[in-house]
Specification:
By secondary structure, this protein is mostly helical. The chain contains ten helices and no strands. The radius of gyration is 19 Å and the shape is flat. The two termini are 24 Å apart. The model has no long low-confidence stretch (mean pLDDT 85).
């Protein structure tokens, strides 16, 4: 138990380092104004992560209950990814297409770079959310040691890239590096989980087409000339409806998830 607890603590510390090291480096290499600029946009990532982590906590208990049945756990992991993809499409595309409005609602002065940073962060939110599903699986199958091993190298990559890019690109380099290291982390988690989950081309393309469709829904509604609040509501409703059309969401699977949890 102590060993598993230490591994989990190590995971939390490394994950915090991966997503926070760049802010520390920026503060050491530049002034507080640059750090404050990035922190303003980063708050949206923190807020989104709270929702994602609640779902991840549920998944850990579900996956642990199915850890002895590879067929069942593979089915549940796939469906969990589908659920989180729908949620992430709603969150990420809402932020991406309404970055200026969201920032102006919170801050008096909105820098052009701040809007761009927030749009890039919306991509980080998406990648991080999907990675959390695999992270929950890795916790349930006791493979944190492997994950921590990869995360040490990912943290080093993050530190080196930030030291190289910050002097040239300033604060704009931070979210770009974050996207890269988030993608590497996701790939590492998929590799560790390869014995428990395998995707076929149809499943991958179905999810990809849904993501593209959701993006187009937000884009079309955004440019339809309606009010921001009406566009937000309609975009999210149409995205959820399309999730059922593409069979990304399934009522029976949702009920099954509830039964396993209880």
């Amino acid at each position: 138990v102590l060993k598993n607890s230490l591994l989990y603590i190590g995971t939390v510390v490394l994950l915090a380092g991966i997503y926070r090291a760049e802010t520390v480096i920026l503060g050491l290499m530049n002034n507080d104004c640059q750090v404050g600029l990035y922190s303003k946009a980063y708050r949206f990532l923190d807020a989104s992560n709270m929702v994602i982590l609640l779902f991840t906590t549920l998944l850990v208990s579900v996956f642990s209950a199915l850890s002895d049945n590879k067929k069942e756990i593979e089915s549940m992991v796939k469906f969990s990814i589908q659920i989180i993809v729908v949620v992430l499409c709603c969150i990420s595309f809402t932020i991406y297409f309404n970055a200026e409005f969201l920032l102006s609602s919170l801050y008096d002065v909105v820098d052009v770079n701040l809007s761009l940073i927030l749009k890039i962060i919306s991509l980080i939110i998406f990648i991080f959310g999907v990675a959390n599903v695999f992270g929950a699986l890795i916790i349930s199958i006791n493979e944190l040691k492997k994950l921590n091993f990869y995360m040490v190298f990912i943290l080093l990559i993050s530190i080196v890239l930030n030291y190289i890019l910050i002097p040239t690109y300033q604060v704009l380099s931070l979210p770009i590096v974050a996207v890269l290291v988030s993608s590497i982390l996701l790939i590492a988690e998929i590799y560790i989980s390869k014995d428990y989950i395998k995707f076929n081309m149809y499943e991958f393309l179905n999810v990809l087409i849904f993501i593209i469709t959701s993006f187009l829904i937000f884009y079309i509604v955004k440019n339809a000339g309606m009010s921001i609040f009406a566009a937000l509501i309609i975009s999210n409703i149409l995205t959820i409806m399309s999730a059922f059309v593409f069979k990304i969401l399934n009522i029976q699977e949702l009920y099954k998830l509830k039964q396993i949890k209880s």
